[in-house]
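Dear support,

We are seeing what looks like truncated structure output for some complexes. This example has two components. We would appreciate it if you could run it in full and send us the complete token output so we can diff it against ours.
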Amino acid sequence: MTFELSKEFADLLQKAVDEKDSEFIKSTLDGVNPADITETLEEFSSEDSRYVLSILAIETRAEIISNLDEDTLKRFLKIYSPEEIAGFIEVMDSDDAVDILNELGNELAEKIIDSLSNQEKIDHILDLMRYDEDVAGGLMAKELIKANVNWTIEQTIEEIRHQGEKVTQIYAVYVVDNYNTLLGKVSLRKILLARDGTKIKDIYDEEVISVYTNIKDEEVVSLMKKYDLDAIPVVNLRGKLMGRITIDDVVDVMSEQAEEERQLMAGISEDVEEDDNIWLLTRARIPWLVIGLTGSFLGAEVIKQFEGQIAVVPILASFIPLITATGGNVAIQSSSMIVQSLATKSVFQDSYLKRLSKVVAVAILNGLLLAALAFTLSYFLRHDLQVSVVVAALSMVVLLASLSGTVTPILLDRFGINPAAASGPFITTANDLLGLAVYFLVAYYLL
Amino acid sequence: MTFELSKEFADLLQKAVDEKDSEFIKSTLDGVNPADITETLEEFSSEDSRYVLSILAIETRAEIISNLDEDTLKRFLKIYSPEEIAGFIEVMDSDDAVDILNELGNELAEKIIDSLSNQEKIDHILDLMRYDEDVAGGLMAKELIKANVNWTIEQTIEEIRHQGEKVTQIYAVYVVDNYNTLLGKVSLRKILLARDGTKIKDIYDEEVISVYTNIKDEEVVSLMKKYDLDAIPVVNLRGKLMGRITIDDVVDVMSEQAEEERQLMAGISEDVEEDDNIWLLTRARIPWLVIGLTGSFLGAEVIKQFEGQIAVVPILASFIPLITATGGNVAIQSSSMIVQSLATKSVFQDSYLKRLSKVVAVAILNGLLLAALAFTLSYFLRHDLQVSVVVAALSMVVLLASLSGTVTPILLDRFGINPAAASGPFITTANDLLGLAVYFLVAYYLL
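Here is the complete output from our reference environment:
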């Protein structure tokens, strides 16, 4: 059914490349989906890929290049001249073209744009380059089908015939007035079933959900999810139709968001992947480890204050991991609950006071259960009532960790920082300090 | 542009419901997107929602009900009779209908199916209920437009007119032979631009990517992402067209996956949300906390073996959090790198040996950097060379944590468990034990 990409196939292709057997390559890759060719070429050297690409049609070539992951893309484009890159850009969707130009730096991008011959494409690209990558304007493509509200079905079909080649998936035809103001949309199905001579104004749907160019990408994602949209038109502040965002771009944004959140939660500070080099991987990991280490030295200073007591009751030291681990686990649970509810914001959210009092209630319940268990275990293992009472201070640690785990992501979100950062090593480190202080203070007063 | 949902609007609606002002409700909700009505009604009592729904058209009602989140849905459906629920099911897409029936338990589901009058709908539902929820068969809807390869364009358009109402978004018309075997697809654009009398067999596209009914949902997601598909046909093992999956369902699966991973990483064992009740929230959180706590008691036993030493050099105790926190952070970083690369599996993955040796290299580099920093800090703060050397045992802890963080998710994945579980409290707890043992053993031999 679908083409099965395999290591054998890649080896076969590599052999053909080595032998410069262009006929074999052409016939092998005929009918293979460009996405599969992309995956194969990502494993090839830039020169070999260039050779394979040179055999393919320019449209296939451009599609493969716009599919490449960032690292491979940079590597590939280095071996092409600005004029050659301009050739690819010419046949790409405007949004993919701009993504690539943004990767290349201003100087090279300008050279490439100068080499473009299609004035419409140049205008599209220059328009899109004005927007940040993380707003609707930066996500949208200029390619879309629009129809004037006064047109007939025949005129609209003619426009689809004319513009259709440039638009990969039509989804709907957007309806505008003489000033390009978005008025609504009409589905292909309606056009298909309409009688000859029907006017667009008589069949179009005025209820179209659109976004402004400056809307944040997360908001575009949540709108398209909520309303199950496959495409959303983008308008400027005066309501003029500027472009449209399609669902495949939104799916990419969602994957990036998930990856970013995973890295934040794990305390990885750069966008790295397992196959990056050792130096990059270390650079991405060391910052949070150093912060955690520094935090632990602060913790060591806290414990140092109670060294006298530990010398007398060394058993106290053995419960340090209990305090820090439980505090950390509780804090991460709490903050991930908040991150989740921030991600699915609703207008009906309860007041902060109500939410916080619930957090406290859950914390007290959890804290009491855990403290009871810890007290029992420690009493049975050590037969020391006083120490077991100290261990039950765990309930206070749970409460504090719940509060800090709840408040931190909310504060981060307020300051415009991704709240998922709170679920990482940050919260663990902060809670170690807090928990240790509480534990040893209780020990100090009780023992 | 879009309807702005607000607390004021909800209050206004609530007041109208209290006064049973059906005219006002009808006129206010006219033209409001069902997704917005859903969001509002989720905050209402079941009885009030029932009243609002009773005023709306049956199609709108069914759409609202299929949009509801799981908890609200269960709450809502309790106040309806099986016959009334059958009324909603009758106008829903087959996949949404089955999702709801799956929520209700076998007995009630059977009663509802018995009350259905549309035989085609019954067949669709019974067919879909045979599949697990997490395979392509469980994701697909039966509603789609198909055309026989021997039809003309006119026959196909007639079919679209006939079946079109039942299919929310057409995307493409699937082409089958007389035995319902999937042969290809033809886009609406092609149909629109085709000349009268054209045969489907002359214009259809044979290259259609399809999935078998038993393919896992994650694989469906990654196929649709890779090939930028908006819909994918589902076939049985003999290649017969069984249904299709649309991109909005895949987007939902992606959101669920992200949420599931977040909860696994945070050690939350049930699918809960911030607005669930205190008892549910506690039940979801306590299992991992108890496991962590038990692990910490094992850690306490490890430390207990070295109590004599701690009594003599109490300074040793102060570095316990350094060992456990750093080990935990390193392990979580390592496992999240693996989880990420498992999520984007490629056929070209390096051998395990090569990957593992890279992990070790990164670990040694990180370990040496951290150990050097820890040694320096500890020497400057405590001026005790021997203890500082013991603290530098951190490098070994980092190495072990990297290995366990790398191997655990791979093993979990092998056993069919979501590898993200490795990034949670599990790995922290395991690493505490390992790290403490190493640290105190080094101390034992050096001091």
